[in-house]
Amino acid sequence: MRQSVPTVALAVAILLTGCIGGAGTPESPTPTQTATETPSATPPTSTDEPERVVAYEDLNDQQRAAFRDAIDGEASFVPNTSYVNDSAGYDFEHVDPFREYEYVRYEGERYRIATHPGELYASYQIRTSVGSPGENATVVALESLPERVRDEVRTAITEGEYYAPYGKWGSLPEPLQDVEYVRYENETYETGYVVGDAWATVVTVEKVE
What we know:
The chain is α/β, with parallel strands linked by helices. Helix content is 35%, strand content 32%. Strands 1, 2, 3, 4, 5, 6, 7, 8 and 9 form a 9-stranded mixed beta sheet that branches. The model is unreliable at 1-48 (pLDDT under 50).
């Protein structure tokens, strides 16, 4: 009979141990969840970096030259026409990487890219159509226009329009500013003008310490 008491006591002890272990089980997920949430905020930095950085080796020859100029000061990208001097800058078509990325990686260092507008260039389109001027309209004979704009207006009349590329004219030539109609070969043509603006893009870079 003395042996039955410890047996019962042992069974009770086992049951109590099971209850104590069971009571602690629901509380255990709290620290586990906290541990897994903490590092989740850091990966985006490394994931986004390749999208924001372009390697110097991935640039073309003009872009590399422009980047080296920007290290020493700045580089400009300008419209690619025969009326814009080559010394004004690099062809505008090569500016994209400096707009799409935030950094250039060069010789193991990162350089932050910044851009701002530079010189303003304008293009002009002359359009013509057969017209009927009113009593107070200004009609000018083609032959009376200055030679520097005469051929351009003749082209607009014979072909319907003339396009002056960026850099050819700094502004609409004064002889054309007040002309509403042009008389050519016994026909009168109404004139109109369309102006297009393009800002040069200036690029600067700064080494990130």
